[in-house]
Amino acid sequence: MLLRVPIKHCKNCGTAVVYRIPDDGDTKPRAVCPACHTIHYENPLNVVGTIPVLGDKVLLCKRNIEPRWGKWTLPAGFMELEETTAQGAARETDEEAGANFELEGLFSVISVVRVGQVHLFYRARLLDDKFDPGHETIEARLFTEEEIPWDEIAFRTVRETLEHFFADRRRGSFDRVHELSIV
């Protein structure tokens, strides 16, 4: 069951929509405007972020916003229009951590089915240990794997990404993208 609020009005003309299977051969109920016949598709939102690393430490940000205020997360957020996933991950890392870094390869792609999101995390190499967190972050701090406050991690996607990251690091290779689904 998707937890998103359904579309109520047509984005083109403002008429109340009806949910039905469109007459164009589609197989799923969609929000259809009875006045202008626009079909409104509801697609997943992309969350993009990084795993910023300096030596044997990973940078985490303590959230200053809901949901999960005060919990730790990787720098990440919703992708914006007119940016690539990599550009969005870099922007979010700058906004939330104020970190100096070089973006590396895509690391994980996690489908979060019940909330209609796809989370994409890139590896990032920190260039120094100076951080200037934005208003969404209480604190940005480096942690070794042993120091990570695992019980205070904000989201399952972040926990899964970190667990795979440390397993790959122990294995000595980041030669694959981890694709996961959380239903």
What do you see in this structure?
This protein has 183 residues and is α+β, with helices and mostly antiparallel strands. The protein has 2 helices and 11 strands, in the order βββββββαβββαβ. It has helices at 85-97, 156-171; strands at 18-20, 30-32, 39-40, 45-54, 57-63, 72-73, 76-78, 101-112, 117-126, 137-143, 178-182. Strands 4, 5, 6, 7, 8, 9, 10 and 11 form an 8-stranded mixed beta sheet that branches.
Task: Chart the SSEs and their pairings.
Layout: E1 18-20, E2 30-32, E3 39-40, E4 45-54, E5 57-63, E6 72-73, E7 76-78, H1 85-97, E8 101-112, E9 117-126, E10 137-143, H2 156-171, E11 178-182
Parallel strand pairs: 4-9, 8-11
Antiparallel strand pairs: 1-2, 2-3, 4-5, 4-7, 5-6, 5-10, 8-9
Features:
183 residues; alpha+beta; eight-stranded mixed beta sheet; three-stranded antiparallel beta sheet; 11 strands
N-to-C series of helices and strands:
EEEEEEEHEEEHE
Structural class computed from helices and strand pairing: alpha+beta
Tally of individual helices: 2
Strand content: 25-35%
Distance between the termini: 9 Å
Label the overall shape. elongated
Mean pLDDT equals 96
Number of strands: 11
Sequence stretches where pLDDT stays below 50 over 5 or more residues: none
**Major sheet size, sense and barrel closure:** 8 strands, mixed
What's the short story on this structure?
This protein is an alpha+beta fold and 183 residues long. The protein has helices at residues 85-97, 156-171; strands at residues 18-20, 30-32, 39-40, 45-54, 57-63, 72-73, 76-78, 101-112, 117-126, 137-143, 178-182. Helix content is 16%, strand content 35%.
